[in-house]
Amino acid sequence: MPWSGYWWPFTSGGLVTGLGYRGSPSPLSKYDYVTTGTYYGPARNYGMAHYYDKNALSWEGMCFCWAAASILEPEPVHGGVYNRTVFHVGDKKGILTAAYHGTLYNKYSVSTPEAFHAILREFINGQKMPIIIDLGFDGEIWNYPVFKYETDFIQAGNIRHYTTTIYYPANSVSPDYVGTHVSNCTYYYYFELDGNNNIIKSGWEDSSVSNHPVNAFEPFGTEPQNPGMDYETVKRIVSTDDDPFEENDAFETAESISSGGYALMAIDRDFFKFEAENGDNLNIRFNAGEDSNIIVRSYTPERMLIQETSGRSSQVIDVLRAGEYFLEIIPDDPAKEYDYELYIQHVLPNRSIFPLNPPGLWVNGIALLSPDDTGRTIITQIDAGGYPDLSYQSRGIKHQLGILEYDFNLLSTNACGYVRIDSDHLISGLQSITDGNLLMAGSNLLSMDTAASEIYYPYFIRTDNWETIFGLINTGDDTEEILRSSYDAEGKIVGSETIELAPGQKLENNTFYMGILKAGAKSVSASTLSGRASLLGYIKFANSIFFPKGRAVVPMSAEGKTELIVPHVASGSGWSTFLAVMNTGAETAAVDFIAYDRQGNQTGNVSRVLKANQNFVGKISDIFDLDSETASMKIKSDNNQPICGLFLYETGDRLAGISMQPADASRLYLPHLASSMNWSTGIGLMNAGNMKADLFFTLYDDNGETLAVETRGLGPNQRLAFTLKNFFGAETVRDGRYLKIESLEGLPICGIYLIASADGLKLMGDVIGN
After folding, report:
1. Rounded to an integer, what distance in angstroms lies between the CA atom of residue 239 and that of residue 580?
2. Which fold would CATH assign to domain 447-659?
3. Which band of pLDDT confidence, cut at 50, 70 and 90, is reported for residue 628?
4. Count of C-beta atoms within a 10 Å radius of residue 139
5. Check: CATH 2.60.290 for 350-436?
6. Domain extents in the chain
7. Which of 370, 384, 468 is nearest to 420 (CA)?
8. Is 50 helix (H, G, I), strand (E, B) or coil?
């Protein structure tokens, strides 16, 4: 039995626009999304050219393709989930219709009553097969899959006057319609017979004289003309029924899930479970359509009800004892086949963020290090809206290194967000993103414990060759209203605006297009109106020159300090160091820029008076006359006014950006060492204390086993700069995975690392964390 379906008129182009159906994303956009990762892929692009024409005739559409599919394909009767995307019945019928643009068929003329009658008898009565018949008239084409006919005649001498009614599914139904809504049409004609009842003449009668079929078609397959579509893939999508977790209809058959986002269908009750340990939190967000009424219940390991919500809702479960926790999803009307989105964020005691997760051809590599403890680590991709997407969980691994897509199986179509790390233990890490041989950027892991109520951006650049992007992430559980203000060269406000960030949401703004950056603006701040410490921020610098293209990512410190360190000043041989400092306090402060040579001798001291919110920007060579002797710097403010800042290393068009930090740790870890034939890692280290420090450098392999130990003594304010290959030897460092630097006396040290490619095209760096 052929099924009713929509004929997808060209004037609205619903297969590609979603008009006349559920809107965007359209059926072909969904197909592209699950096969190519974008809603604007080849199937939709072909459809835009062939299935959408605002100027088409009102009757033009996909009726022939639908008719062929309805004869040769089983009817999709339920929605389903394919590759984490919901395909409703109408989506399935739509992509089947598009797949039959390329129907293989035999064509028959039925312009005479004799031919028309014979086709009905041969296919419907004889072969028990429907046949497509064009029932249009006045030049219009309306193809239908005819599956039944009834005929009778009145004999008048040797002439039989026939009345024949044909039956076919209607195509004037909703795309989501299931079943066969039968329509019919009646035709009148006569046969003149000879003495042996052979037809010697036939003709149309009454209304059928001007309105009768002309052509019929026998479909027997398809070779899709849309180059973006694969028939076997279409079949797999159409064959899905409900979501991949069925049969999870009871506690006993509950499906295990972890952090991430899930596209699901509530055709019946669904049960899910997840393992949690004492002290964890489970943040659950549930999105469903406004017309749906779905109940969400959470349960303890003893299956005692924790909370019940309905519709768009959220729940937070504080885990008080280890075990399996349950969710039950209850639709009020399963016949409506509600689809919904379920988001789970498994929150562990330590939470951090890698701010970048770019789309396209970028490769996102990360390194994670937990040197003193092993426990659970959850790597979760978060989309730009703050919703978890995919996750990877491990346990008992000190050092993890890999590419998100290949080593952690985190191939997300929701890139442009960020990567969240939850762990049982303190963890350090860095990320490096690359695109081909030219583009590279990276930064350290940002602890969410350092989130603040106010973030300062002390510098931006907008030229023909350089652009700056400000990044901001709301790490809290509440929507925040955020006041952004820009300041001129004197620290006065020149523009302000209020924006809103949902929980977990990330926002990036190119400074070329920020309205508050009026003429004379030099710096920016962002603060929560609630006063909640929920913001993490960063700055991206990008060089738009074709070859090469410099990139730098600078995480901005959450809190200003009264003393900041530049542990290494790069100068000479094409290198220069550039810095920006901002007074983030409420009062004017004298800020001292103190320079030291390699031995720790002070070689310069320049003071600048900075008003509240005023910044100072310049190259080291513009601050001190003896630039070549400057190896490191301290920057101090008086009267306890906090300052923040960044410094940039520039060589050619390559750039590495680093946030200024105080020296407040005696033990540092570098979680990744790039020291192959094509890569090298350089380190700049400063003893910021007032007495000599004995430093131990311990090189570890992937299993945490010691490969080498070196010691060095550093006097007060002395700097040490080296590459790992020169320091440990190329053969030894090749097997190294991470490095510990420790002051035996517990004195404060501060360091930076630079990772560079041997071809001179890629560069990144950051501080060495504790």
Report:
1. 59
2. Hypothetical Protein Tm1070; Chain: A (2.60.290)
3. low
4. 7
5. yes
6. 1-241, 251-347, 350-436, 447-659, 667-767
7. 384
8. helix
